[in-house]
Every structure is written in structure tokens, then in C-alpha cells.
Amino acid sequence: MATRDIYETNFDEDVQTNSSPNLCPECDGRVTTNSVETICEDCGLVVDEQQIDHGPEWRTHDQDQRKRTGAPLTAARHDRGLSTEISHGKDANGNELSGQKRQRLSRMRREQIRGRFQSKAERNLAHGLGDVRRIASVLELSDSVRDQACQLFRSAQNEDLLRGRSIEAIAAASVYGACRCNGFSWLLGEVSEMSRVGESRVTNAYKTLNEELGLPAQPVSPSMFVPRLASDLECPDEIRQRARALAEQAEERGVTTGVHPAGFAAACLYKAGQEQGKWVTQSDVAETGNVTPTTVRTHHETLDELAV
DNA sequence: ACGATTATTGCGTTCTT
DNA sequence: AAGAAAACAATAATCGT
Q1: Cβ distance A191 to A153 under 8 Å?
Q2: According to the model, what pLDDT value does residue A12 have?
Q3: Is strand C within 7 Å of residue A257 (CB)?
Q4: Which of A167, A202, A208, A294 could pair with A192 as two cysteines, CB 3.0-4.6 Å apart?
């Protein structure tokens, strides 16, 4: 049951939009398509961007599934890596084999290795996608974002990014990456809390994910964080919108780089409240934003300077 | 509760080996 | 190229009003 669940996919109309041109419109150079975007090899121009839609990989995976013949291998491979090797050339007594038998043995060896490899990969995949789905449901992400996270995990596995890392770390990083690419305000620490691995592992995993896959990820901005804090505080719409405007102004002037988005968003909500007569205290917004009143004060000052 | 001052943490850079 | 370390910015803690 879990298996069926894992292999479900959204094969909607948005998958087959990859009618990417073969030549770069700028310099007529060759273009290559990686898992995220299509770029020109000569000038580096991004010809086509995919929104973390790794549809083609589904297809190849499906083809692999169909190509594999014989009984289901799933439950059959519990060898824990202690696997059988089929040797070359000689039989068990060291005698030479006939050509026909050598051919058969060669074929068997090929099949066995292939089956072993696939079962390992699929175990990882099933485990990882399970984690992805679990974390995504805890964070109450939409199905489309969750599926993007699943695609990210598949890409990570295809790119051989799992070796040396734990599956759960990659899974959490995939979820976080999907959040970042869709403008969600979950922080890495919050996502990693949902997994059973340390935050540093998830950080590492996300870092390599970002580098190797070239995610179109944008940093969590304070303005993105305002709605979340506002709903936690049950804030009036008017103040929320004003706070968001404040945050966007500050971002445009470039004073929010490097600051904790929650801290700055909290300061914006505080200032918006002040403008409408007192609404909440510094410590209140600070608490819901998981920052200290000191941080709120600091950013409140910079907001005041901006308004002058 | 807010403001000011000091302490701590985290993180990108730089310097070594 | 990988690791250590000095330096800086952001955040937290503490105290005073």
C-alpha cells in the first residue's frame, strides 16, 4: 500500500512543456538541459527554466520498471549486501566451461547485478520519498509542492548525491528546497526539526542539492514571513498589509540582507501596530517570531531611519 | 515596556599547511 | 585544495530608566 502511494505522480498537462530549442538564440551554441534548466554551453544563457519539474525522469523510471522482467524483486532481496558473485570462466571445480554455458552465465551475471542495483536504489527511493511525504504533511504543504520535493529527491538520487549522506537528510533538504523555490517561509531549522537527523546534516544536504542541481531558490525574505507571523498573532488585515509594505520597502533599499527574516518581519509588524495606535508589544511579536525583543528593537530602529 | 550597553553566536573570508 | 583562524555582523543577554 505504501508502495503504491509512493509511486503515484501528477502527470498533468504541465509536464510536457519542454519543447526546448536545440540552439542558443544568442550565439547559436549548443544547449544542454540538466535537471532544472536549459543553458547554452558557450555563453551560459539560460534558454529555458523548468520549475523543478523533473518530468522526464519519471518517464525513464517508468520505462525501467517495464523493462525489468520476472517476479517482483522487492521482498526478495534481503541480503543486506551479502550478495552472490558469479565468477568468470571456470565452474565450481575449476573446469573450463563451454561457450554456450559461458554465454548463459554471463547473461545471468548481468541480470543479477542489474536486479541487485535496482533493488537498492528502490529501497532508498521508497524510504526517502516516505520521509519527504511525512515531513511535507507535517508542514501542511500543498500536494504540488510536496510532489516537487519528491522530484527533487529523485534527482538527488539520480545525480548520486546520496552517497555519504543519510536518506533522511536528503529528504528534508528536498522539502526545504521545494519550499524555497515556491516562496514558502519555512526555515531550514524548522524543516530539519521534522526529520530525525541533525540540522547540520540537512544543511550539508541542501547545500549540495543547491549546488549540484542549481535550484532556482530564493532566500526567505521578511515580507514573505509577515503573513505567517500575522496569522500566528491573529493580526488585523490592515496592519498585516502595512507591515508587508514596510518589509518590501526595506528590502528594496537593501537593508535586510543577512538579517533573520522572522526578526525583521516582527519589527515590521510592531511598527505597523504602533502607527495604528498600540497593538502588540515588542516582546509579543518577538516571541511568536522566535527572536528576542532586542532584535526587534534593532530592526525597528532601521525602519525608523528609513522613514525619514 | 522600552532603550542602551555588553556578550555571544554564526558565518563568510582569508591565511596556512 | 582543505583546514584553521582572525574578523565582522547579527543576535542574545543584561541592566538601567
Answers
A1: no
A2: 34
A3: yes
A4: A202
Do residues A259 and A297 share a domain? yes
Residues A166 and A230 in one domain: no
How far apart, in whole angstroms, are the C-alpha atoms of residue A87 and residue A109? 8
DSSP state of A11: -
Verdict on whether the full-model pTM lies above 0.85:
no
Range of A43's domain?
10-49
Q: Which residues of A185-220 are buried (b: 16+ CB within 10 A; e: fewer)?
A: bbbbeebbebbebebebbbbbbebbbeebebbbeeb
Residue pair A66/A27 in contact by the 8 Å Cβ criterion: no
Q: A31 has which bridge partners?
A: A40
Domain boundary among A213, A243, A260: A213
Which nucleotide lies closest to A294 by the C1' atom and the CA atom?
C12
A68 vs A225: CA distance, rounded Å? 47
Question: What is the amino acid identity at position A112?
Answer: Q
Q: Which three cell numbers stand for residue A62?
A: 517508468
Highest mean pLDDT pick, A23-27, A42-46, A84-88, A256-260: A256-260
A229 exposed, middle or buried (CB, 10 Å; 0-12, 13-18, 19+)?
Answer: buried
